[in-house]
Specification:
Helix content is about 30%, strand content about 15%. The protein is α/β, with parallel strands linked by helices. Helix 1 packs parallel to helix 8. The protein is globular.
């Protein structure tokens, strides 16, 4: 995919979960399709190129395969997109300096593999400290719960964030299935969690950190990341 003609020569790295089951339930999960396609559509429309990685590499499991969603349907029918997500790079093999931003899509699978990925934590730290943008939506902020800066502070400490709320987790009946409650854990790391009513779009921007609460927030997260990147914010 071509780089932007507005001087943005580095792509954005989209990171997807490789975890396929909801804990001990055996129920399938994976990355949530709309949390990939909606931000992707925004960035591509702005001429910003995107590459894909996952924790284990290869083809990650997909959840939320709602093809009544026009954007989902368009990308799912696109051979280029399908080939890209079928052959993701293993996060351990990416070179963080190649990217101007990193984005973590949600899906319940993230709750098991994102927080434990030292390579994801390293990529977050390197991209952020180089002046890049870090974004995540829904359960994607699970990648942030153990991410630290070079000085040992949690990236989210003292920052405003949004993420899938404890109430939303209870609403889907998985509060006792996930290994931890995401919003509560982010708060325990020092984040200022900013919830909105369940299932409403809620995007929080704190400097170069962009987070969204739920699938309804995916488009807005893409817009916020696009705006930061096109503005050339590097501080």
């Amino acid at each position: 995919m071509p780089a932007s003609d507005q001087g943005l020569t580095k792509p954005v790295l989209f990171v997807l979960t490789s975890h396929a089951t909801k804990g001990k339930t055996g129920e399938p999960t994976g990355y949530f399709l709309g949390e990939v396609t909606h931000p992707l559509a925004v960035l591509e429309a702005a001429g910003i190129s995107v590459e894909f990685a996952s924790v284990a590499g290869g083809e990650p499991p997909v959840d939320g395969l709602d093809l009544k969603d026009e954007i989902n349907a368009r990308y799912w029918a696109d051979p280029r997109f399908r080939a890209a997500v079928a052959a993701t790079t293993r996060i351990a093999d990416i070179v963080p300096s190649r990217y101007q931003a990193i984005f973590f899509a949600g899906g319940h699978g993230t709750m098991w593999d994102f927080p434990e990925s030292l390579e994801a934590q390293a990529a977050i730290r390197e991209i952020y400290e180089a002046g890049g943008v870090v974004g995540a939506v829904c359960h994607g902020p699970s990648a942030l719960v153990n991410a630290k800066l070079s000085d040992g502070r949690y990236l989210v400490a003292g920052r405003n964030v949004s993420a899938f709320t404890d109430d939303e987790e209870r609403a889907v009946g998985l509060e006792d299935v996930v290994p931890f409650l995401l919003a509560s854990t982010l708060s325990a790391r020092g984040a200022r969690h900013q919830p909105a009513p369940d299932w409403t779009s809620n995007v929080v921007v704190d400097g170069r950190l962009v987070t969204g609460q739920n699938p309804q927030s995916a488009h807005g997260v893409g817009e916020a990341m696009r705006d930061l990147l096109l503005a050339g914010q590097t501080n």
